[in-house]
Amino acid sequence: xxxxEILNKIRDAIVNLDIDNIQRLCMEAIEAGIPAYDxxxxxxxxxxxxxxxxxxxxxxxxxxxxxxxxxxxxxxxxLEPHLKSGEIRKIGKVVIGTVRGDLHDIxxxxxxxxxxxxxxxxxxxxxxxxxxxxxxxxxEHNPDIVGMxxxxxxxxxEMENVIKALRDAGLRDKVRIIIxxxxxxxxxxxxxxxxxxxxxxxxxxxxxxxxxxAK
Length: 215
Ligand code: B1M
What we know:
Blueprint: H1 3-15, H2 22-31, H3 36-56, H4 62-83, E1 92-98, H5 106-117, E2 120-124, H6 131-141, E3 145-149, H7 157-168, E4 176-180, H8 186-192, E5 196-198, H9 201-213
Parallel strand pairs: 1-2, 1-3, 3-4, 4-5
Helix pairs in contact: 1-2, 1-3, 2-4, 3-4, 4-5, 5-9, 6-7
Residues 45, 48-49, 51-52, 55-56, 62, 65-66, 68-69, 96, 101-108, 110-111, 147-149, 151-154, 178-183, 198, 200-201, 204 line the site of CO-5-methoxybenzimidazolylcobamide (B1M).
């Protein structure tokens, strides 16, 4: 089977909510020499996009969204050990979280995993993170970068609240801020005073790498 065929099977396993076979397929991909990184971005993430489209067309409902998230997490269990960096020296520190009111964490987890694989120390605050918790984490961990994720148009505004809270605490200029998630645009990032917006995890990691290498 070609790499493309294996990746398509993994994509379809997400779309078909096939929790029984996702780990086996991910193992097959690794054994076939496909980088774990490609399995996430060109297999599973593609499947999640299709699940989202089906939800929009009322072909899938909330139960299917939850199940698709679970299938993706099962696949990640196989792939994560293959994504981890062997580096001892860390290239920078990132505090990351999904903003208040938002429980979507699959994309944020991929970003955190790929950042770790790229050599960053990552402090993951989880989901539904209020601005005060971002501020506390910046005080405690002194990161180079703060990363925020939001998937809902109703929660993206929380990103601005985090930036305001960092500004009020005198911490805004000590960190670079990157934001991401399906509804996030460059224009929005500029408007709320973030330093960058990333369309996907790969772009996000590249932006973070460029910031620490320019230090
Ligand atoms: Co929700 N949901 N959901 N959901 N869900 C969306 C986001 C939605 C677009 C579906 C739709 O209508 N088409 C829609 C939002 C509409 C809107 O706001 N305009 C929606 C809705 C409405 C809801 C609920 C309100 C549904 C309800 O209860 N009626 C509810 C809200 C709960 C809450 O958060 N308070 C809800 C709940 C859920 C589940 C819990 C069931 C589940 C999440 C499970 C989980 O995360 N653990 C879920 C899912 C799975 C989705 C979809 C189908 C998939 C999201 C996902 O994981 N994508 C989603 C539809 C869609 O996005 N097309 C949808 C795969 C992931 C790899 O992509 O997260 O975009 P993504 O991350 C990418 C990039 O965006 C980027 O890199 C990642 C990898 O490349 N990125 C960053 C993300 N963060 C970044 C940070 C960075 C850099 C890059 O730097 C820091």
